[in-house]
Specification:
The structure is a homodimer of 384-residue chains.
Chain A lengths: L21 H22 L5 E5 L6 E4 L4 E4 L3 E5 L6 H20 L3 E2 H8 L14 H15 L8 E2 L5 E4 L1 E5 L2 E4 L8 E2 L9 E6 L3 E5 L2 H9 L2 H4 L2 E5 L6 H14 L3 E4 L4 H12 L8 H4 L5 E4 L4 H4 L8 E2 L2 H11 L2 H4 L2 H13 L1 E2 L12 H12 L6
Parallel strand pairs in A: 5-6, 12-13, 12-14, 14-15
Antiparallel strand pairs in A: 1-4, 2-3, 7-10, 7-13, 8-9, 8-11, 16-17
Helix pairs in contact in A: 1-2, 2-3, 2-4, 3-4, 8-11, 11-13
């Protein structure tokens, strides 16, 4: 991935970090390197500045060979002595300092927590360091890209979202989670799932079935789908958060499990799949650690209305906005260059209606878990 | 509780339900009773109709002695032969039939699933049974009240939301969940937590600490608060869903655990507390199975700004809407009649700002878990 090379770790100027995990020692080194760089520039009489890689569409490239979205090399300077960037410079340094504290204390915090930690009125002025969280979150993303460290490595978490059950044992902060015995509730997927927090234990599962919503997950779990088909069952409560995507990627890369998605037949379902598979523009700088180029889209397919004889009740008319989104998504290179996906989106548009996974109940309460998905799996009938 | 007496179970007209749990046999009996009642009226030459208890503010009473909101006795007739109610009559019967199928098959479904199950075009017409889920959900609530059965007893679930860890073992559909060993993720609280799904095993915990958001829950879990203070730690991802509320109530009633809430110091935090404690108008018919009159509000308190020397960074100005909401909430009888709560809301309004739990990070990353909450617990300094 075309990630900015991180500043070299410095040997001095930080507290002893001997007891910290290797990952944290590395991140602290990057943080210290960043401030050393600023300090050195200043000492040599130059203006203090930091360089921030650009997270824009124009600096996002589609790497066809790797099958992921990547960030380009363009950067922007953020000098201290410039009215336009002085505040952002200060904000970046403040957050860098909070992150160093978090890592050294072995603690994590939320995006909102970090915002509050840095928020104060600058002494002798009426100016706040930050007024709203909207100012704060992008600065944290700036730090991620500049340092070449994932947010999780900066000890910052988002809201937990998503649940897992299935034929695998996980070790979560030393606790053994037997995902085969998690009842109706399941194990909540944490926001930070890096290898020093979550380790994989015994795993019989042959694939991961990822569904869009918790309600669909409930149907599959209640019918013990993961037991009957020897798999892991996950959902991400809609657009899966980073923790869920990273966990799926680790299951795919480390345990070689195919990730098979069951999402709604609508532009939103296609977009969720696209993000799981290729990454997103706003997070392109970490596609290599989040994207799963070989993820599969099993359904719901536009052809299912006829092929499964679903009946009119499943139809929900496409709105104008749906049609617009479908055309936008069809233009994504990984869809545009794939004739199966072109056909899929064309048929969705020709149908003029979308279909949700939950609509399958029309054919029977467990039709989706006992007939639809098993038949498609057997026939390997999916899009890639 | 002034709940409508349920129709008597009928001896005939249903499939054998010998293998179903007692709870389900009872619910099936109520469903069959409802349809028998309609059938009998028709056979005796009267118009078929069902009576639906009114879920309006005017039919909601504050039972001061019990400390909960209750539904009154007022009902509305829903006759078949009336253009205004014919469709709703049909919808009620359709959903009753779906629910009977669900229970007999030992399965559950989501609100959306039940909507799809009933949605179809009436033969020979262009009329749909249901057009949107907005029409469907209230019909299910009608059935809950008419039958005197919780939605969970009708085998219908909502999105799962909320997480639990702590010094307790739960048995979830036969799987033993050791909530002391759930790592950073925790056990996902299911939507249906009735005793035939979730049983309580060994429990050392002396209370439940319920926090508003997953991000705050992460802070408390990371600091092993539940271990140090021998409790159970839950969150409901904002306004807690029914599953979470019902579980808290069961922990309170069956295991006699105090429920202690740590919520934001704003009208939304007060409202969440009010719903946990007293129930809500829209669900007043099931307050007796959801409300926890003795739940406590530990913080954040309006006095904390001074008392804990929090600093200006924690302040967020009250909006006009906040002020309006605060005044509305102050008028709830259980707050209006409680001088401590009157004072609390007055001080919030006098302060002119709200404070979030996450803002406490200003005093240190673990200030809230290591100083604030332990000190308040020790002093029993909370509102009731």
């Amino acid at each position: 991935m075309a990630r900015k090379p991180a500043p070299k770790p410095a040997a001095t100027g930080t507290k002893p970090v001997g007891k910290l995990p290797d990952r944290d020692v590395k991140t602290i080194g990057k943080l210290v390197g960043l401030s050393d760089m600023v300090a050195k520039r200043s000492m040599s009489g130059k203006d203090p500045l930091i360089q921030i890689p650009l997270r824009t569409k124009s600096n996002t490239n589609w790497n066809k060979k790797k099958g992921i979205l990547e960030m380009g090399d363009a950067t922007a300077d953020r000098p201290l002595f410039d009215l336009k960037t002085a505040k952002q410079f200060m904000q970046t340094m403040l957050h860098a300092s909070t992150i160093k504290d978090l890592i050294e204390e072995g603690k994590t915090s939320s995006l909102r927590g970090v915002f509050y930690k840095a928020k104060h009125t600058v002494a002798g002025t009426k100016e706040n360091t930050f007024d709203t969280q909207d100012e704060s979150d992008p600065i944290l993303e700036d730090l991620e890209v500049s340092l070449g460290a994932l947010r999780e490595e900066l000890h910052i978490f988002a809201e937990n979202r998503g649940t897992l059950v299935g034929n695998i044992t996980l070790v979560d902060k030393g606790d053994e989670i037997n995902a085969r015995r998690m009842g109706s509730g399941g194990w909540g997927i944490p926001s930070i799932v890096e290898p020093d927090v979550i380790r994989f234990g015994k795993c019989e599962a042959k694939f991961v079935l990822h569904v869009e919503k918790g309600t669909v997950w409930n149907r599959f779990n209640e019918d013990r789908f993961w037991e009957k088909h020897n798999c892991i069952l996950t959902h991400g409560a809609g657009q899966p958060p980073r923790g869920c995507r990273r966990l799926l990627q680790r299951l795919n890369q480390e345990l070689k499990l195919p990730i098979i998605c069951v999402l709604d037949c609508d532009p939103w379902g296609h977009y969720i799949y696209s993000v799981i598979k290729q990454g997103s523009i706003s997070l392109a700088f970490e596609s290599s650690r989040l994207a799963i180029p070989e993820a599969k889209f099993l359904g719901i397919r536009a052809k299912d209305y006829d092929e499964c004889d679903l009946g009119d009740a499943v139809k929900i008319d496409l709105t104008e906005n749906d049609i617009k989104r479908a055309n936008e998504i069809a233009a994504y290179p990984w869809f545009a260059e794939n004739r199966h996906w072109r056909k899929e989106i064309e048929l969705l548009l020709k149908n003029g209606f979308k279909m949700e996974v939950e609509a399958m109940i029309n054919k029977g309460i467990s039709y989706v878990t006992e007939e639809y998905v098993p038949e498609r799996l057997k026939a390997k009938d999916w899009l890639e």
